[in-house]
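Case study.
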Amino acid sequence: MIAVLGLVVGVVVGLVLQPTVPAVVQPYLPIAVVAALDAVFGGLRAVLDGVFDDRVFVVSFLSNVVVAALVVYLGDQLGVGAQLSTGVVVVLGIRIFSNAAAIRRHLFGA
Amino acid sequence: MSADDGEGGARAAPDRGPRAPLRRLRTALRPRATRGQLLAGLLCAALGFALVVQLRVTQESGLDGLSEPELVRSLDELGDQVQSLELELSDLEQTRRTLESEGDRRQAALRSAQERQESLELLAGTVPAVGPGVRVSVVDPAGGVGRIRLVGVINELRDAGAEVVSVGGVRLVASTDVVDTARGVEVDGRPVTSPFDVLAIGDPARLSATIGIPGGVLDSLENEGATVTVEPREQLRITAVVDPPGAGDLEADPGAAQAEQDDG
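After joint prediction, the assembly is written out as follows.
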């Protein structure tokens, strides 16, 4: 419940403040967002599996974001930033899909 | 769908049953102000915030959201595009210049061809001519003026610069013949009788002076018993024309007309 509230509050704050993204963060923000989405879907699945744990969720969320940003940063330094970003997004996308499928099976039994 | 897909981690699976997931969801939605729940809420808030910000950046920015390599690439592409467009531009300008100069050349060629055609038509006697000139009337009651005298008049006029000459309504061209026959003088096969009416276009003063030169044509004609009147005119019109011999040949080969004229 608090998580859902937090999501809503974050969206509202973002809409109200309309901040500009610092140039340093710009390349990593989209990937970080996708990674966080992956963590959130994983957490939701864990809730439905009955194995949700706050600590695990927080750690997985942060590590997802940090690792994703780190991979993109490394890719930029190596000159393969665009390709690596694509790769990360593809992997995270696959995970989001599989988590979404698990959630669906739990909720609808199909 | 491997077992470790769930990022939420695993502790235990306490209850089972078809309705279990929904029950678990309800349990999870119940607010519990534990430290972990608050932290998770905070992270979700951060996610929502970042999501909205990123959406806005993506929507409003053309180039702002692009990474450095992407910017460099698009800059390169634009440079290539500019280069190829400039190349095309210079090509087209070159083509335009070529076409313009070609057009000029063609116009000049056309003009000179037209001028040439006009002068050749006058020489060939296929068009009427207008200009200042003289009218020479030779009244010859005795019939003493023959081919030789007539040709003398014509040649004198030509020498004096007459451009177009007609005798008794017959246009004189390079191929014109003047012959004596039993009935009199024939010019190009057409009989010409007294009074001989000679029209010549050229400088009137010069033409009349040539005719009237002492011991010239005028004197020799009067010696034959003829009366000669020379009448300078500011505007003389010679309408007599000759049919072009094989009109097609003449037009197709202007050099032939030139050659005929040279022969004369």
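Observations recorded in class. The first helix of chain B runs from residue 20 to 29. The mean pLDDT of chain B is 78. We will return to this complex in the next lecture.
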